[in-house]
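BUG: 3D viewer hangs when loading the predicted structure for this chain

Environment: internal workstation, default settings.
Expected: structure renders.
Actual: progress bar stalls at 90%.

Input used:
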Amino acid sequence: MQHNVFTDNPTVPIDVKDRSLSEILDGMLKTGFQGRKLAESVQAWHNMVKEKNMTVLMGLSGAMVPAGMRRVISYMIRERMIDCLVSTGANMFHDCHEALGRKHYVGSHLANDEKLFEHGVDRIYDVFAVEDEFRVADNLIADFAEEIGEISCSSREFMHLLGKELVKRGAPEDSIVVSAYRHNVPIFIPALSDSSIGIGLTIARRRGLKLEIDQIKDVDEITQIVEKSGRTGVVYVGGGVPKNFIQQTEVIASILGMDIGGHDYAIQYTSDAPHWGGLSGCTFDEAVSWGKIAAQAKKVQVFVDATIALPIVAHALHEKCRETKRSAPVFDWEGPEGLDIAYEE
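Structure tokens produced before the viewer hung:
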């Protein structure tokens, strides 16, 4: 009788017993559907951080900070589970908002939005925030920009300066921006103008300041990270601009004569579907056709609400990585030929 290779790996029903979260995820590797994919993402991420000469880039979209995910991301920065963050401007603005002592509030998606407007309250699905407090932060960013003066810089350089300012103001390290500043993890915001940070810089511009955020320098700098890294892995929370900004580095490097073969690991947590043709839901197999993801890469796409996935994944990695000594990249942006990268021994 011919051997049937399709039946070599039977599923194993998950049982209930005393065990750690990471052990539960390990058990889910033999189950099905998105539960298995979530477990596979933890396995792939753990393998990434164990590899030598590996740079892990994260794309962060959606309203993750208002939804309570900022400490998860800042933990991943401090523990170097990620080495470079590409975010929407909104997430970083909301992080600064909380770092300065203000809050987001538990609300309801059933609230009367006209009444909320009358009370100066903004709604992000079931999370509330106070508009006047946001405007204080808008003006603070404008004032800070005026202190910097008339310079041209990448969003990475601007966020580094903003992190330094937050530290000076006593902001805690559970801030994403503060953690990135203290641990030399670059933050890129390729659509910075599309956020309250952009609003603050527009206020400064109306006051006469000529501070320019050089978004093409952003593209050059993150491409240098990918070109000069040993290997690269990507983790996308949602999709949108952060996802493509990281993806296109492989195309740019190829056009410039450095065919580095695509990212070596690719993980995504998304609630979007591929059949609408949008980037946020497109599969990593599709990205292989563009040369953005290596054909042999470990690819795990989890169709899940990221506010469910991130706390589970972070806690599982916290358990798994206790004994892992990470060989994290150290970025030197003042090298004679631009960026220099060395990996910690």
